[in-house]
Amino acid sequence: MAASIHPDYQTLGLTFPANLTLSTPTVATWPSEVLDFAPLTASSSDDNRPCILFIPGNPGTCLFYIDFLSRLQEKYPDHRVAAVSYAGHGIIPRVVERSAGRDMHFSDCLAGQAEHKALFVSSLLQSSSPPTSLVLLGHSIGCHLISRFLPSLPSSVNVTDTFFLTPFIQFSPSVLSQSMPLNLVASAPLLALRAILQSANALLSASSGYTGRGLRFLLGAAGGIKNANTLEVAAHMAVTPGYFRNFITLGHEEINEVPREAPTRAILEVAGRTNLHFLFAGGPDQWGPVTQMRSLLRLVRMGYIGKEVGGRMVYEPAIVHDFVRDDEQIGVVVDFVEAGMRRTLNAGPLYPGVRSKL
Fold first, then answer.
1. Stronger pLDDT, 44 or 30, i.e. the higher one
2. Which domains does the chain have, with CATH numbers?
3. Contact status, residue 252 vs residue 114, Cβ threshold 8 Å
4. Which tens digits make up the pLDDT trace of 56-112?
5. Which end of the chain is more exposed for a tag (fewer CB within 10 A), N or C?
């Protein structure tokens, strides 16, 4: 078995698993990065399997999570594992260009991004070999997108489990420190981009004599990115101007549109369709702080959210919000997903995280 990688991605320095297909089908007018890991076990109809579908956080490209998804595939060799990037987000110019015929509604606002994901799920389910069931995983703002599109899926779609991994589903005081600079940059993203890149190039060239090598060193040392594929993707994102513009535009939308109060109704709607699991990070995590878990547990005790949801909330201080930057943290999150899916099947113990004592 050999990986099937779109030609535009073959020279970017990434390492791809042998069972991966990387393509850019058009979804809602945008060519969209799609990762599709084929099942590792043989079958007469390999595509008619349960599918684990991942919705990334913002940076918006599923390539940021290649090794995380590959580890999930190893845990679940009988499953298909897939992921879709955001409209307008990626590491090659063709998928981020705001060219004629592309609808900015899908790239620039959360409602449009949620519709984009719903359309992708619909295409998956209407394919010649649709999955028998879905497990949804979201990271950060990807959890918010799932909460928007999952209730709209037909009732015939069997979503057995949904995992909110370090979720950004509620605006909290800790996000205020991020909102002012983001609002400022969003007011003139191209000017900000030019200033940032010029400053970075001058700094890195002076310190290393080679901007590409220096950029990777900076991202690894200052950004704490230890995973090789994640580091390479981050480096490509940093020098793709169109990506930066779309990232800032959507990020500005996030901090202005994510609910200020606990999204009780959205949680209830999702929990009514699936087994909902929450994983909160240490860090501290400014986007999904553990205080939000405490607030949700209070709502459980008050009867607004079911006890079965509260029983699947875990605080894991061993990880940070962007856990994908570190191989050990990736393993912790994969173990959490495995424990949650085993619990649904009544086939294993609870994940040994900190729960209701918070």
1. 30
2. 4-174+259-344 (3.40.50.1820), 176-256 (no CATH)
3. no
4. 998 999 999 999 999 999 999 999 999 999 999 999 999 999 998 999 999 999 999
5. N
Angle at 141 between CA 324 and CA 308, to 5 degrees: 90
Asked whether residue 218 carries a pLDDT value surpassing 90, the answer given is no
Nearest-angstrom CA–CA distance, 82 and 255: 28
* Helix spans in 110-156 (H): 110-125, 141-149
Structure-derived torsion over alpha carbons of residues 153, 159, 165, 171, reported in degrees to the nearest 10: 30
Write the DSSP symbol of residue 223.
S
Q: Residue 197 corresponds to which tokens in the numbers above?
A: 């890149």
Place of tokens 């594929």: 229
**Does this model's pTM top 0.85?**
yes
Q: How far apart are the first and last CA of the chain?
A: 47
Burial readout 300-319 (b: 16 or more C-beta within 10 A, e: otherwise) = beeeebeeebbebbbbbeeb
Long-range contacts of 19-28 (CB under 8 A, 24+ apart): 19/73, 20/66, 20/70, 22/63, 24/90, 24/94, 24/95, 25/123, 27/84, 27/87, 27/116, 27/119, 27/120, 27/123, 28/87, 28/103, 28/106, 28/112, 28/115, 28/116, 28/119
| Distance, CA of 12 to chain centre | 21
- Phi/psi for 281 (5° steps) reads -100, 165
Return the beta strands (E) in the chain as ranges: 4-5, 20-23, 26-27, 30-31, 34-37, 51-55, 80-84, 134-139, 159-165, 275-281, 313-316
Distances (CA, A) of 331 to 58, 62, 83, 227: 21, 18, 18, 12
Buried b (16+ CB within 10 A) or exposed e, 84-120: bbbbbbbbbeebbeeeeebeeebbbbbebbbbbbbbb
- Residue with token string 């994640």: 230
